[in-house]
Amino acid sequence: MLLRPSASILRDAKPPWKSQTISGKLEGAFLFTTAVAKNVVPFLLIEPLLVALPLVIREENSAKRFEVVDHDEILKERFASRWFAEAERLWNKHRTDKAKRSEMTYLNRLDFQHGLTDQNPDARFIVLYTGSATDASAVVVDRTAFEAPFVAEHKTYWCEAKSESEAHFICAYLNSGYANEKIKDFQSRGLFGPRDIHKTIVKLPFPRFDPKNELHKSLAKLGSKCATRASYSITSSARAMSESGMASPSALAAPLFRTSSNRLA
After folding, report:
1. How many alpha carbons lie under 13 Å from residue 70 in its C-beta half-sphere?
2. pLDDT digit of tens for each residue in the chain (265 aa)?
3. What's the pTM?
4. How far is Cα 218 from Cα 132, in angstroms, rounded to an integer?
């Protein structure tokens, strides 16, 4: 497969990485699906990204896990080996002085604090939410919906769910006006008001999902309904809106699909 960098990602990149690109062929086994903040709006994932990662899925005792690999470990994959050798060269050339002093490799940086390898490829449903914004935007991710395995990007927060209903329950709570209003006094503030959610919202007390609790089931159904409506309302127009310079899909979706229920117990 012949790959080149995304124009939208290059626009958002910071020096010196903005001008450092890799293009060429790559084996499909090293392609993964992910999402950055701009791909996540309440209840909806918009145009998730395809990324190349030095990552493989190992299976031990019937359980799968992610493992980062160096380019010299995959020499039989000639395109991937060349690709990630170039990535390592660019990292060594342009990494910060702090990274040089600590001898941080590009693999260490990619898997910083085990951000990649702690993820579970076997977890079908995960809830993903943005860490930096006035309000949290959360979405349910079904890993079976993607041809390339899904991995969470380091600036998004995620959790595994035991079922689709539990995932929609958590997602509806994180998107709720109730939860986002409760954290306002604890968020850092910028020129335009509260910002930076990080783990503040999950520190709020809220109940563990109980599939026998009628209120929990109702909130899960509401979350599922919001996801269906968001997909129907936004997906078809997202690309046209972006290209025409109109309000972004996230700006449109955020106010439309916030849940307002205060009863979570």
Report:
1. 5
2. 788 888 888 888 899 998 999 999 999 999 999 999 999 999 999 989 999 999 999 998 889 999 999 999 999 999 999 999 999 999 999 999 999 999 999 999 999 999 999 999 999 999 999 988 889 999 999 999 999 999 999 889 999 999 999 999 999 999 999 999 999 888 877 766 676 788 889 889 989 999 999 999 999 999 999 999 998 877 566 556 556 665 555 455 544 454 444 333 3
3. 0.85
4. 29
Task: Evaluate whether 201 touches 159 at the Cβ level (below 8 Å).
Answer: no
> CA-to-CA distance for 196 and 187, rounded, in angstroms?
6
Q: How far apart are the first and last CA of the chain?
A: 50
Phi, psi of 204 (to 5 degrees): -65, 145
Burial of 48 (0-12, 13-18, 19+ CB in 10 A): buried
Domains of the chain, by residue range, sit at 2-256
Which tokens is 250 given?
């996230």
